[in-house]
Write a structure and sequence with these properties.
Blueprint lengths: L4 E12 L5 E12 L3 E5 L6 H8 L7 E6 L2 E2 L5 H11 E5 L10 H12 L4 H14 L15 H13 L5 E5 L7 H18 L2 E5 L3 H5 L3 E6 L2 E2 L2
Parallel strand pairs: 3-8, 3-9, 6-7, 7-8
Antiparallel strand pairs: 1-2, 1-4, 4-5, 9-10
Helix pairs in contact: 3-4, 3-5, 4-5, 5-6
């Protein structure tokens, strides 16, 4: 496995069994290099969200093998995977999932406090730095419920970056935003990829967003067709 490979999927196949057996992912294989910005696209029901949950290690009910940062994560125990996710993966969803009564700073700090790699003061400083990188450091001490949707998504991206993850995974990260804020989020991801070498994988319905990423994986009926 090359050192530059962030993720490699080999023969990933997955079935749903309720109400009948149905193949949702069909022998999927690809690799993503470190620093790549990749969009997974396709119509609703094509399997793209199911694929993202497998790639994120949150779904372990599949056939095939998944490597992240050169390590085979397939078959690892749930507590090992939870630790791996906190160290190596950052998540940005359609809805920001910030704790509304916490300050934006505290929301960003939470994954790093859980990791216990740095002391409290160091985590606080790192959280300020991530908020500053995303242009929302002046909102650090405001509660998450008191800022706009676009600002909340920037705070959510800062939270995803706090542990310096190998990969940021986005599930419809612009799906809840107007076109201006969607463009802002894309530009943030592009900057993270180009300037900081951040690997980014997003599932998106937004064709404009996808068309400007480095590579598109288009899915139809559980297969990557393009």
């Amino acid at each position: 496995m090359q050192k530059t490979t962030a993720l490699q999927a080999q023969h990933i196949t997955k079935y749903f069994y309720d109400p009948v057996k149905f193949e949702v992912l069909d022998d999927i294989g690809f690799s993503i290099e470190k620093g790549e910005f990749v969009s997974i696209t396709g119509k609703s029901g094509c399997g793209k969200s199911s694929l993202l949950y497998v790639l994120s290690t949150m779904d372990t009910e599949y056939e095939g093998n998944l490597f992240l940062d050169g390590e085979m994560v397939t078959g690892q125990k749930q507590d090992q995977l939870a630790l791996f996710r906190n160290r190596k993966l950052g998540f940005v969803f359609q809805f920001h999932y910030l704790l509304p009564d916490f300050t934006n700073l505290k929301n960003v700090m939470i994954p790093a406090l859980r990791l216990k790699k740095y002391n409290y003061a160091e985590v606080e400083q790192r959280a300020y730095e991530k908020l500053k990188m995303l242009g929302v450091d002046e909102l650090a001490l405001k509660s998450a419920s008191k800022i706009s949707g676009g600002q909340q998504q920037r705070v959510a991206i800062a939270r995803a970056l706090i542990n310096d993850p190998l990969i940021i995974m986005g599930d419809e990260p612009t799906g809840n935003l107007d076109s201006k804020n969607a463009l802002n989020v894309f530009e943030i991801f592009q900057r993270l990829s180009k300037e900081f070498g951040q690997t980014i994988i997003t599932v998106t319905h937004d064709n404009d967003f996808a068309s400007k990423s480095d590579r598109i994986l288009e899915m139809v009926d559980g297969k990557i067709v393009h």
